[in-house]
Amino acid sequence: VQVTAHLTDGVLTIEVADAGPGLPKDFDITRIRGLGMRLVRFVSSSLGGESGARNGAKGAVFFVTIPLPDKQ
């Protein structure tokens, strides 16, 4: 498992990737009903961001993006 975070143009992106077989073609993250995934979706949307999943180079990648407020 690899966890990365980066900041680009005021948007924080956190990714969790594995080296498994990847996600099936019909995978839909909104269908996952586990408490953990529901919390991730709730917190990210509450902060104006989003969450999702995709196939990476070596397996599945789950991510959260959160726009950070401007410091003025």
Written description of the protein model:
- The protein is α+β, with helices and mostly antiparallel strands.
- The chain contains 1 helix and 4 strands; from the N terminus they run ββαββ.
- It has a 4-stranded antiparallel beta sheet, with helices on one face.
- Strand 1 (2-8) and strand 2 (11-17) form a beta hairpin.
- It is globular and about 45 Å long.
- It starts with a strand and ends in a 5-residue tail after the last strand.
Order of strands in the sheet with the most strands? 1-2-4-3
Mean pLDDT rating: 93
Major pleated sheet: 4 strands, antiparallel
> What is the global morphology?
globular
Rg (CA only): 13 Å
Could you tell me how far the N terminus lies from the C terminus, measured between alpha carbons in angstroms? Answer: 37 Å
| Multimeric state | single chain
Number of strands: 4
SSE arrangement:
Layout: E1 2-8, E2 11-17, H1 35-46, E3 50-55, E4 60-67
Antiparallel strand pairs: 1-2, 2-4, 3-4
Quick recap of the structure?
With 72 residues, the protein is an alpha+beta fold. The protein is 17% helix and 39% strand. The chain is globular, with a radius of gyration of 13 Å.
